[in-house]
Amino acid sequence: MDRSPLAPASFPDLPPIAGVRIAVARAGYKTWDRADLTFAAFDEGTAVAGVTTKSRCPSPEVEWCRAALPLGQARALVVNAGNSNAFTGNRGRAAVEAITARVAGAVRCKPSDIFVASTGVIGVPLPIDKAEAGIDAVLQAPEASWEEAAATIMTTDTFAKGARASAMIGGTRVELVGIIKGSGMIAPDMATMLGFIFTDAAIAPGLLQAMLDSANRQSFSCITVDGDTSTSDTVLAFATGKAGNPRLESIDDAGADALQAALTELCLDLAQQVVRDGEGASKFIAITVEGAESDASAQRIGMSIANSPLVKTAIAGEDANWGRVVMAVGKAGEPAERDRLSIRFGGTQVASGGLAVEGYDEAPVAAHLKGKEIEIGVDLGLGDGRATVWTCDLTHGYISINADYRS
Amino acid sequence: MDRSPLAPASFPDLPPIAGVRIAVARAGYKTWDRADLTFAAFDEGTAVAGVTTKSRCPSPEVEWCRAALPLGQARALVVNAGNSNAFTGNRGRAAVEAITARVAGAVRCKPSDIFVASTGVIGVPLPIDKAEAGIDAVLQAPEASWEEAAATIMTTDTFAKGARASAMIGGTRVELVGIIKGSGMIAPDMATMLGFIFTDAAIAPGLLQAMLDSANRQSFSCITVDGDTSTSDTVLAFATGKAGNPRLESIDDAGADALQAALTELCLDLAQQVVRDGEGASKFIAITVEGAESDASAQRIGMSIANSPLVKTAIAGEDANWGRVVMAVGKAGEPAERDRLSIRFGGTQVASGGLAVEGYDEAPVAAHLKGKEIEIGVDLGLGDGRATVWTCDLTHGYISINADYRS
């Protein structure tokens, strides 16, 4: 698979995170000639928070994480790529238990301190023998780079995705690093994909969870590739506390705002990279909805536009078909008044007050649509509600990838 | 555009409906070398009922019909193809008023007895001069056939769509004929597309409306091509009363059940023809959901499957990827329990009790998926709720049509 035309030029330079050790190994879940098992070990005292898919049919990995998250402590993370282990009944649950028991034995901690996520085909139980051999190998493996880890969690992704941020807390600089995978089955309003965030900040688990929830609402919940929601999607944040900052207990503590801002920025960077690797994507689309009755209403309208196959194919065709944007606003089921609605592409107003802007200049619109970074603006003229969501276009590439991907 | 591979062999043989006269003309809304204006005149005493889009940004035609429908009487119908007149502000409203006034003057009735629908590009005001010239021409035109009318209302459709049904009411046979257009921007849970039904049955307008609502719930509301909802979608039913049956006033009257059954059958036939002409469709997909907590829940789960790009591309690729069906069940937001869920393709159970059926015979599944008529069955194992919905696959053809269609 060719690298997405929307990919960044190179993987970013990411700092080490004190208290985190990364390694990769080849469990051989698929015939891929590459590592497919990622391992992270955390020093004692590492706090954890997470958001998981809203699917009613989640994988046993998701159920495991949901049960362990309230305890707030993590010592290790295992990520399997190539097999999601979802919809595999007791055998899937047994695989998760075998993985967590084996790692807990090696690390000498409780199984509930071990977090696990898997991604790939649904319906094939994760082979326990391969997982166990992979874990034994990864425990002996040399330390890996962030780029190796980001590449090892990939499935249909065309580029490894990572990002960094930092914040000052009480005079101490803390670092945040994130890696993420995902390019299809990416959907709105929930924790999408597999994403892992590591920081050396000292923070209470409950506050880390609140910060991750907030960051998620402004990042992973605002992207969509195809409106489809995985059974396995998980974002986990690990905070080792090794930076030595005064431990944050409350959002009112000095420096908490800075960490929240850094975490949100990091999540947004990661989320946008997923969209930039959307299956078949040739254009990155930012949709800003203003003037809605509420922020939530603006987001639902934005997602209705972002998930419309007709809008997405029009952008693929570089066609300023704002009528399809009107259609998508109309079908969202949210308050809207046709005769107050205005729409712009790039910086050019194309429709206003319920009809086309007479004689608007088509040249800048056409030039904007030929680019790779597309902006659609909608103003409902009703209130102060505002949201931005991100998606990609819908091309022949999406069909080719998904009509051929072997189940 | 090639005729859909799912099209019926030929247009059906449809009977005349007493009290209805059809004609077509060329208004020249587009450069098409074909008729684009369809006209139907009804004898005095014709009852009318209708269902219209749930879009919050409807066309002025839809608003006109919504205002006129409660009066229950119709003398004429005008359908414009090539320009939807949606999102055109005062000029769009003026075009509808000009059309209805001109026809009312010719027919000598109230403007509110005239119904109008338009389909095509959004955002370009319908040119009033062309509409008026078209009306003048159609009023002089010879009577047209049902097939000519069905072809004249088409836009991106690849075949003309019509159907018939009949019922016995108090010893009198009544006939029903329907024509319909639509192949993209077809979405669930509302009156979709432009559909027109004509019957010689004598029936009170209120009862006709109740029957159309019921038929709509089991037909047009159960289909989807792309989950997108037009600003213009309208289904109208006209009943001339010329069959001479005892006029139906209540659903409890003798023969009302038979007419309801015939109307529902007709609507289902028309709705399925729209799916068979879904943009780029190569396979017709029937999705039956059973064992849900309610019929409504079953329908929402069915639509979640039917609107999933990943399910639709898997079917296009003839891939028995039932994991994507699990995904779509999970994302529907309806009650579901992974470990009670079972799935079949054609007659073959592929997953049951939350995991793959061990060693199921793949040969009949592969053979079924190579066909043009695909059946997906889902049993949730929770209750008695049941629904069937219909869609088509998602192919390169959809992308080609919609990335190129000129706005």
UniProtKB/TrEMBL annotation, chains A, B:
What EC number(s) is this enzyme filed under?
2.3.1.35, 2.3.1.1
Q: Domain of life of the organism in this record?
A: Bacteria
Molecular function GO labels: L-glutamate N-acetyltransferase activity; L-glutamate N-acetyltransferase activity, acting on acetyl-L-ornithine as donor
EC category: transferase
Indicate the annotated site residue(s) for Cleavage.
A191, T192
Instruction: Specify whether Acyltransferase is a keyword of the entry.
Output: yes
Which pathway features in its UniProt record? Amino-acid biosynthesis; L-arginine biosynthesis; L-ornithine and N-acetyl-L-glutamate from L-glutamate and N(2)-acetyl-L-ornithine (cyclic): step 1/1; Amino-acid biosynthesis; L-arginine biosynthesis; N(2)-acetyl-L-ornithine from L-glutamate: step 1/4
Summarize where substrate binds, as residue positions: T155, K181, T192, E279, N402, S407
Intracellular or extracellular location(s): Cytoplasm
Q: Where is this site: Involved in the stabilization of negative charge on the oxyanion by the formation of the oxyanion hole?
A: T119, G120
Cited Gene3D superfamilies: ArgJ beta chain, C-terminal domain, L-amino peptidase D-ALA esterase/amidase
Q: List the catalysed reactions.
A: N(2)-acetyl-L-ornithine + L-glutamate = N-acetyl-L-glutamate + L-ornithine; L-glutamate + acetyl-CoA = N-acetyl-L-glutamate + CoA + H(+)
Protein function: Catalyzes two activities which are involved in the cyclic version of arginine biosynthesis: the synthesis of N-acetylglutamate from glutamate and acetyl-CoA as the acetyl donor, and of ornithine by transacetylation between N(2)-acetylornithine and glutamate.
**Which PANTHER family does the annotation name?**
ARGININE BIOSYNTHESIS BIFUNCTIONAL PROTEIN ARGJ, ARGININE BIOSYNTHESIS BIFUNCTIONAL PROTEIN ARGJ, MITOCHONDRIAL
Identify this protein by name: Arginine biosynthesis bifunctional protein ArgJ
- Where is the organism placed in the taxonomic lineage, from the top? Bacteria, Pseudomonadati, Pseudomonadota, Alphaproteobacteria, Sphingomonadales
Q: Which gene encodes it?
A: argJ
